[in-house]
Amino acid sequence: MDRTLATDLARLPELLEATRRAAADALEALDARPVVPPAGPPRAPEPLPEHACGTESALTAFAERWAPRLSASAGPRYLGFVTGGATPAALAGDWLTAVHDQNSNSALDGAGQDLERETIGWLRDLFGLTDAHTGTFVSGATMSNTTGLAIAREWLGERLGVCPSEDGAAALGPVRVLSGAPHSSIAKALSVLGLGRGSLVAVPTLPGREAVDPAALDRALADTPGPAVVVANAGTVNTVDFDDLRAIAALRERHAFWLHTDAAFGAFAALSPEHAHLADGLDASDSVCVDLHKWLNVPYDSAVQFTRRQDLQARVFQNAAAYLGPLGEHPDLVHLTPENSHRLRALAAWFTLRAYGRQGHREIVERDIACARAFGAALERDPAFRLLAPVRLNVVCFTLAEDPTAARLAALREAAQGEVFVTPTVYAGTPALRAAFSNWRTTRADVRRAAQALRTAAKGTA
């Protein structure tokens, strides 16, 4: 063994303690450090070290070279991208994920698969899905949507008497994927799956809304030759609008279609009795996307994909090799996603669900919703801003009251990002900003700081 590596092994408890101190210091500083530090001049990449220097040296180099430049994305005023943080339990689970370093895709080493299936059962219950829905962990909403639409593609083949997983997507002929206000990852998934971005058909939405018009969807399905795919939204990106999932599902009485619901963060409305009606009908979906590194507040790179047709899922993603288990009634996870390898992502989710339960996560959701409402109300009172949509759940979509150009909004966002980070968007043709509340740390005090930072920035960039 390399001498430095052997020394690190002998000192491992001491090195882990040093890492713990560095982590604790970083988390303790979240409230005071800039949410997004000033960019500064770019640094030239350092060359790969030729000789071993050890973990302690690497910790020192990271602390000097990279840590000061990282954003406080784990903190309470990072309001971009609908990104949560990591609860204490989720952080503990993630650390132990690396410690145990499991191959959780194979029944030959089965405890990881069992843990994932238990966690999936908890999540299914949390979101009000049925026992008919099986689930798997993936890296994020884009991979979840891609997996769901891959199963939909196989369902289309089943209806048409072909097998796209064997014969290719061309065997299907023209495909139509209908949606009112789809997330950008839907078009990306269609490109990856060989269905093409051009197969996505925009269906009119309700007036002043991002929710699809069920009557317009009915007409579009009537005009579609053969079976189709419908992508519903349970929480749109800009305004957290929800399609009427029950009304969409009722259209199956007249039309044949696969219903995929993108509920990346909107599924969490089910945790709040006041807002659960928004996600009513989610259980009618054939496949569902939920992104856990948003409102479950587990570390980044964690989502789930649910479906009623695991048999079709396994047909798409089966992987034949002598060292892999057979498909069987309960296929190994390796047969259910594009990834042959993934870390035991379920452990962080298991930890936070086990630690805080339904009530603890309900409190996070309801507090974030209350913070979003308070932030929206503060902006409404400020003559420098105007809201572009009502605050339906946890996202505030707003712009400048006068001359809301993309350039002015970029200057405003950059001026405020030491205190608050928001992301740019365009809503109904108007350049805008979006503040998404999904972090477990966020409080009303953070709302006041964020609103004041934007108010000050608006004056400075007027």
From TrEMBL:
GO molecular function annotations of the record: transaminase activity
Cofactor(s) for this UniProt protein: pyridoxal 5'-phosphate
Record has Cell membrane as a keyword: no
InterPro entries per record: Aromatic_deC (IPR010977), PyrdxlP-dep_de-COase (IPR002129), PyrdxlP-dep_Trfase (IPR015424), PyrdxlP-dep_Trfase_major (IPR015421), PyrdxlP-dep_Trfase_small (IPR015422)
Pfam family, one: Pyridoxal_deC
Entry keyword Lyase: yes
Keywords: Aminotransferase, Decarboxylase, Lyase, Pyridoxal phosphate, Transferase
PANTHER family: GROUP II PYRIDOXAL-5-PHOSPHATE DECARBOXYLASE (PTHR11999), MIP05841P (PTHR11999:SF70)
Family the entry assigns: Belongs to the group II decarboxylase family.
Name this polypeptide is given: Aspartate aminotransferase family protein
Lineage: Bacteria, Bacillati, Actinomycetota, Actinomycetes, Kitasatosporales
